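To fix ideas, we close by showing one paired sequence and structure record:
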Amino acid sequence: MNSEQWKPNTTVAAIIEKDGCFLMVREQTADGVKLNQPAGHLEYGETLTDAVIRETREETAYSFKPEALVGVYLADKAGSDITYLRFAFCGSVGDVDPAQPLDDGIIAAEWLSTEEIMADPTQWRSPLIGRCISDYLAGQRTGLDLIYHHR
């Protein structure tokens, strides 16, 4: 029996729609250039909403105000023993800071239509990208009061 406790990697993602397009990032990965929502890992001491605000700013230079939780997703990384627990938020986007450098590996932040994103799932960093957008477009939302962080 393995005495080590298994823990998934906790991540956050921002689903940001404006004028019929979604804010996405193109990033360099071990598997080549991939498309992703602004997303990343929860850091020690952060709340989930703090993390998604930070990740959006770091990867796109846009400010983000989370307004609802779209879903909680559990997904295994293909070919590994890594599992991701993703909290996907939607909300409103603010101003962009053109002086803000983007995170290492981020090539560009882009506004893309649903059709452009869904046209080629092989370009996605994770299969959760399509699922999160589909859930968002279906109107799936939960209030942020569902999330509690005890400090």
In short: DSSP finds three helices and eight strands in the chain. The longest strand covers residues 62-76.
